[in-house]
Design goal:
Helices cover about 35% and strands about 25% of the residues. It is built from 4 helices and 4 strands; from the N terminus they run βββαααβα. It has a 4-stranded mixed β-sheet.
Length: about 110
C-alpha cells in the first residue's frame, strides 16, 4: 500500500511570532487521517505567558486575553503534544507538517 494511503498524523502549531528560537507555541493540533479509519484530532490552546502581538492575532485569531482565560499551562500542553506525536511515531505513523522545521524547533524550544 502506498504511504499516503496509510494513517498519517498531521501536525501544526500557531505561535506568538516568527522566531522559532524565542517565540512561543500558542495553539497546536494533531489530526490523524487516512488508513480507512475515522479522523481523530487533538487540539491545544496554550497561555504562552507572553503577550500575543496584534499582527499575530490577525493571522490566527487568538488574543492574549483568550489565551490567558482559556489556555492551558505551557508545560502541560507541550507534554501532551509531544506525547501524542511520540505515540504516533511509535506506532509507525508518519508525522506530516507544512513547516516542520519551524514547528518542531519552536516546540523543542518551548
Amino acid at each position: 500500500m502506498n504511504w499516503h494511503l496509510k494513517r498519517l498524523a498531521a501536525f501544526d502549531i500557531e505561535t506568538t511570532g516568527t522566531d522559532p528560537e524565542s517565540d512561543r507555541v500558542g495553539t497546536a493540533t494533531v489530526g490523524l487521517v487516512g488508513g480507512d479509519l475515522p479522523v481523530e484530532s487533538d487540539s491545544w490552546l496554550i497561555d504562552p505567558g507572553i503577550p500575543i502581538p496584534e499582527d499575530v492575532t490577525s493571522v490566527h485569531g487568538n488574543t492574549t486575553e483568550k489565551a490567558q482565560a482559556e489556555g492551558q499551562d505551557p508545560a502541560d500542553a507541550i507534554e501532551g503534544i509531544v506525547t501524542t506525536l511520540a505515540d504516533q511515531l511509535q506506532q509507525g505513523v508518519p508525522i506530516v507538517a507544512f513547516n516542520a522545521r519551524f514547528d518542531l524547533t519552536t516546540l523543542d524550544r518551548d
